[in-house]
Write a structure and sequence with these properties.
The structure is a single chain. Helix content is 34%, strand content 19%. It is globular and about 70 Å long. It is α+β, with helices and mostly antiparallel strands. Helix 1 runs antiparallel to helix 2. The protein contains 14 helices and 19 strands. The strands form five sheets. It has a six-stranded mixed beta sheet, with helices on one face. Strands 1, 13, 14, 17 and 18 form a five-stranded antiparallel beta sheet that branches.
């Protein structure tokens, strides 16, 4: 197997979150026809450009695709409305349990008048326990009561049935914690019936409650969700030196577009790291703060790490027997060619070289009629791990990488890279990704939804499919408490 370091050209689009604000639409439209049209276009794009349909290591992918396509088509019944269309497409997109594959409304600024309802209480999932965290009025479970189950199902099965299809990747702790309050703060999803009767345990006694669902405003609902889960804090993009000499490198984004505002800031930050690499490597403590990072391009962290450790040390420590196969299609090739056109070869010659190499390789595979092109960089170490340079670690600083529950895609690549180089992972358990990576987006023909899909498949990645990164030291306080987190990290041993 060819030995290459992967992730140099990570996801070119940030993975969208579960949509809450659908696009404006005309009520007079034929949503049955739109559902058939968009579901078919989504399925066809997957067949054409996703690695799964031709991935011999995932023989069940096509059956999963066909089963969920048929479900979407079965829901395209005459007379359905926008809500039926929206939730059917949402479930179709989430059916693959892959954050790199799905759909979202094109216009996320518009607030559709959803019919939100609740039974007067809210639950949260904390430390594996589903319990009431807010309750109003008589005849409702008290705060602290533990949810046992609803309508004949245990709590885990019930929650998986009601929320799993709307989120995907329900097996992940981060997904369940983020979405737990929505179990009783439901949208008007016509395909998932509301609970009728639930059982709770409180003070050693069990009691069943018949639920009375009443309207709740979007604003109030949002407040309750925030209170139950907390808001996600996003650090900035920049670098700061603390009084004790420690340096914090804030990377709240790995925005893939170098011409964007965040891309410009990242360019400036990486240039500063390269210019000050010797000083930074000798700092008493070096912290990579990834709070709020959703992914993007992992080249930002790779370039920073190469500057700090030096390329020979970086290559030796991050080498693995992994490989990447890129799915060949016109759409995928055009996506990477467009990205290459946005790069300034003078500012980032290495990334420009790699993307150009990728486009050339994919075009060659296309001409030969091959379904994949395996990324093959002649300048990269291949057959065996390159030798570690003589001498001590070039970075004498105690290095930490700080994450939150939403770290995904290229953010996970950053954790992998930095821990390979000896960093200590701290903070919260991350999100996770499958072995299908590097997404591209496109608009579905109905003009309502935008879809995204992955273009490559990892082979031999050490971290498994949909496996999160678990911190060595876990932060249990508020993610926004930067002073507290800094003091906490200062008290931790490295390693």
């Amino acid at each position: 197997m060819k030995s290459v370091w992967l992730g140099v050209v990570a996801a070119f689009l940030a993975v969208p979150a579960l949509a809450q604000t659908p696009a404006p639409v005309a009520e007079a439209r034929d949503y049955a026809a739109l559902l058939r049209q968009d579901a078919t276009a989504f399925r066809d794009a997957i067949l054409d450009s996703h690695p799964g349909p031709v991935d011999r290591e995932n023989p069940g992918f096509n059956a999963l695709l066909e089963r969920n396509y048929r479900l979407a088509m079965a829901r395209a019944k005459p007379g359905i409305g926008y809500r039926d269309y929206y939730w059917a497409m949402t479930e179709f997109g989430n059916a693959f349990d892959d954050g790199h594959l799905g759909v979202t409304p094109i216009d996320r600024s518009y607030r559709h008048p959803w019919d939100y309802r609740w039974p007067g209480f809210v639950v949260a999932l904390r430390d594996g326990v589903w319990s009431v965290v807010h309750s109003e009025g008589e005849g409702r479970p008290a705060v602290g009561a533990r949810l046992i189950g609803c309508d004949g199902k245990g709590v885990e099965a019930f929650a998986a049935d009601r929320l799993g299809p709307l989120t995907g990747r329900w097996s992940l702790t981060a997904t369940r914690v983020r979405n737990a309050p929505r179990l009783f703060l439901r949208s008007d999803n016509v395909w998932r019936a509301p609970a009728r009767r639930c059982t709770f345990a409180d003070a050693g006694k069990r009691r069943a409650y018949r639920l009375n669902w009443t309207p709740i405003t979007a604003e109030r609902r949002g407040q309750l969700i925030t209170e139950a889960v907390g808001t996600r804090f996003t650090t900035g993009i920049g670098m700061s030196k603390l009084p004790d000499g420690s340096v914090w490198i804030d990377m709240g984004s790995f925005e893939s577009d170098p011409q964007s505002e965040d891309g410009t800031r990242l360019t400036e930050l990486v240039r500063a790291i390269e210019a000050q690499s010797t000083e930074l490597a000798a700092a008493p403590r070096l912290v990579f703060d990834l709070r709020g990072n959703n992914g993007g391009s992992s080249e930002w962290i790779a370039r920073s790490a190469r500057a700090l450790w030096g390329k020979p040390w970086f290559d030796a420590k991050t080498w693995s027997e992994s490989a990447a196969d890129y799915r060949i299609s016109e759409g995928n090739i055009a996506n990477f060619a467009d990205f290459a056109a946005k790069l300034d070869p003078k500012d980032n010659p290495e990334l420009h070289r790699l993307v150009t190499l990728l486009v050339t390789g994919m075009k060659g595979a296309q001409a030969r009629g091959e379904p994949f092109w395996r990324f093959n960089d002649p300048a990269a170490p291949r057959a065996v791990r390159p030798p570690l340079p003589a001498g001590p670690d070039p970075v004498t600083a105690r290095v930490f990488v700080l994450t939150d529950f939403g770290c995904a895609s290229a953010c996970l690549d950053a954790v992998d890279i930095l821990t390979d180089l000896g960093a200590t992972h701290v903070g919260q358990e991350t999100d996770a990704d499958t072995l299908y990576m590097e997404i591209r987006g496109f608009e579905l023909p109905g003009g309502i939804m935008r879809a995204w899909l992955p273009t490559k498949v990892y082979r031999g990645r050490q971290r498994g499919s949909n496996v999160p990164a678990t911190p060595r030291y876990r932060w249990t306080g508020a993610l926004s408490d930067t002073p507290g987190i800094r003091a906490w990290i200062a008290s931790l041993p490295a390693g």
